[in-house]
Specification:
Aminopeptidase; 2 domains
Length: about 400
């Protein structure tokens, strides 16, 4: 195992504060994971297992520095791995266009206004998880990380520490971060839809309101009148990458909020590396691909992760709803009972009876003085308050609820 040199970091070190005296934490680069058995099985029950993390490091965000925490027992055996990365984070990214315009004026004179070097724990393209399975092990690992995160960030010359998009199920385990000065705020949540129905028509009849049912029927009828849309499902989309990637870019650039921008190699490689968990849905009009959806599979849940649309025809063909219908139909036919969608585009999801799946950010500045100020600013900087549709979901309050 290759541990980063002591000249740059003081690894490994013993942990004393609220942790086992024999516990150690090491930091390694990707090369140091080759001889770590815990990494080979990391997150294997999740749709985004260790192969996904390696894919993201290989193909997305080359400006990020990717590293990994090794949580080790008294014998030096790694019992859990927690990925993290370093980047320059824009704290204003989640604000409305009005506030962003005001911030742009400030940045004419102060280019790095509220842009901070950040140590971010989690996944660079998606939500994060703790590797350990039991609640006790999760609390133990979180305690080790929280006791040392600020020290590590200072050594990395990072001013901010962020736990990126951890599902609400980890709130109890991660409460130790709150005890050490972190602030929990909501990130843009995912949404969950129950699809445990006999068919898509059964779901429409039983789950949707009459007005929504009528609108959907009208949309599908209008789409069919404009021409037959052919669908195809593949695991490897590399053969059509030059057709689907521009569609992804169209959706990405149309979004008001920008997250990580994926690359052609990402879409080319994901099906090759993770064929058991990847499905590409393709839709063609007159032989031309006009929409696609990259879905990942986990247990009885299907996750539409990324979508691409040809906006020259997407509105007339109601491609978003057309694609959603086909994915739900396929999921029901193959025994899936839930569909979990990524953040944004909440208005149509509300109509289709999704509920929110909260994701949390845990944030702390390495300076106690600045952190005291940041705690008061974060509720104004968090991204969810600018989306009016979110407040209409029946479980909106879960975004802010304390850990159970």
């Amino acid at each position: 195992m290759t541990v980063i040199k002591k000249a740059a970091f003081d690894w490994p070190f013993s942990l004393r504060e609220r942790t086992s005296p024999s516990a150690t934490l090491a930091v390694v680069s990707r090369a140091g994971l080759a001889s770590v058995p815990a990494w080979q099985s990391a997150f294997q029950s999740k749709r985004k297992d260790m192969r996904y993390y390696e894919l993201v490091e290989d193909t997305v965000c080359p400006e990020f520095t990717f590293r990994y925490f090794l949580i080790q027992d008294e014998n030096g055996r790694t019992r859990a791995v927690q990925p993290f990365f370093l980047l320059d984070q824009d704290l204003l990214a989640g604000l409305s266009p009005r506030w962003l315009a005001m911030a742009a004026k400030v940045r004419r004179f102060w280019p790095r206004f509220l842009k901070l070097r950040t140590l971010m724990v989690g996944c660079a393209a998606g939500e994060a998880h703790l590797q350990s399975g039991s609640a006790a092990a999760q609390r133990r690992d979180a305690d080790i990380l929280s006791a040392n995160a600020v020290r590590i960030a200072r050594q990395e010359k990072a001013s901010l520490v962020v736990l990126k998009e951890f599902p609400a199920e980890y709130r109890k385990a991660l409460s130790c971060f709150l005890d050490r000065g972190f602030t929990r705020i909501p990130s843009m949540p995912m949404t969950r839809l129950n699809i445990a129905y006999d068919s898509f028509d059964d779901y429409v009849a039983k789950a949707l309101k009459g007005r929504t049912r009528g609108r959907l029927r009208k949309k599908f009828s209008e789409a069919e009148q404009l021409g037959p849309i052919d669908s195809q499902i593949v695991t490897d989309a590399s053969a059509v990458i030059d057709e689907i990637y521009p569609l992804y870019v169209q959706v990405y650039e149309k979004s008001a909020l920008h997250f990580e921008k994926l690359t052609k190699p990402f879409f080319q490689e994901i099906g090759r590396r993770m064929p058991d968990k990847v499905r590409f849905f393709l839709w063609r009009l007159n032989g031309k691909i006009v929409a696609f959806s990259l879905c990942l599979l986990e247990g009885h849940t299907i996750y539409p992760e990324y979508i691409g649309l040809d906006y020259t025809v997407a509105i007339r063909l109601h491609l978003y709803f057309y694609a959603t219908r086909d994915v739900i139909e396929w999921g029901i036919e193959h025994g899936f009972t839930s569909l979990v969608s990524s953040g944004l585009g909440y208005a149509p999801k509300l109509q289709m009876r999704h509920v929110l799946e909260p994701l949390d950010l845990y944030v702390r500045h390495t300076s106690p003085f600045v952190n005291a100020i940041l705690k008061r600013l974060l509720p104004w900087l968090e991204p969810t308050h600018s989306d009016a549709s979110l407040k209409q979901f029946p479980n909106y309050n879960e975004l802010w609820e304390p850990p159970r």
